[in-house]
Design a protein that fits this description.
Number of domains: 1
Shape: elongated
Largest sheet: none
Distance between the termini: 53 Å
Strand content: under 5%
Length: 93
């Protein structure tokens, strides 16, 4: 898994929405995907449904989709509702 970490990080960083990237670090996404893949490693070794990197990439992709739904499509805390904060717009009493 360690051997593929850098390629996964590059893939995640390239596909992570800018608004979500402001909240999350791509390396955290990769770490979570690798942790989930580690839980399923025995199953992979029995069946080998895909080449190893493609199998790992699938976990990272699923994690990205989940984060996209959570941070962009949610109504209450969507990154699309955030506004840039500036000192000029802040009023101090």
């Amino acid at each position: 898994m360690v051997r593929h970490r850098k390629k996964l990080l590059t893939m995640v960083a390239a596909r992570l929405d800018r608004g979500v990237a402001a909240r999350l670090d791509p390396s955290d996404v990769v770490q979570e995907a690798l942790a989930e893949a580690a839980q399923h490693l025995d199953e992979y070794l029995r069946t080998r449904p895909l080449p190893y990197y493609a199998w790992l990439r699938q976990f990272a992709w699923e994690r990205l989709v989940k984060l996209h739904r959570c941070h962009i499509r949610s109504k209450k805390r969507s990154v699309t509702r955030e506004e840039a904060w500036s000192l000029r717009s802040a009023r101090v009493s």
